[in-house]
Amino acid sequence: METEKIAYFERPQNLKHKEFIESQSNCALCGNILQLTHSIDRGLNIVQEVALCPSCEIKTRTKEFQLN
Ligand SMILES: [Zn+2]
Fold this sequence. Notes:
The chain has one helix at residues 15-23; strands at 2-3, 35-41, 46-53, 58-66. By secondary structure, it is mainly beta. The chain has a 4-stranded antiparallel β-sheet, with no helix packed on it. The protein starts with a strand and ends with a strand. The chain binds zinc ion. Zinc ion binds at residues 27, 29-30, 32, 53, 55-56.
């Protein structure tokens, strides 16, 4: 496992996806902007997204994306 800034969201064809993600990027508890981190498992070709609130220090969600 490794963590890095993922290029997936930089692609123009994923702008709608990016906007959706950003619209969901505030902590439900305190309203702070969440820090998104992505753990890439190259063995399984899966990216796991974790949203961490720096104020509450809670992980608010995880998502998994299948890589091509
Ligand atoms: Zn919070």
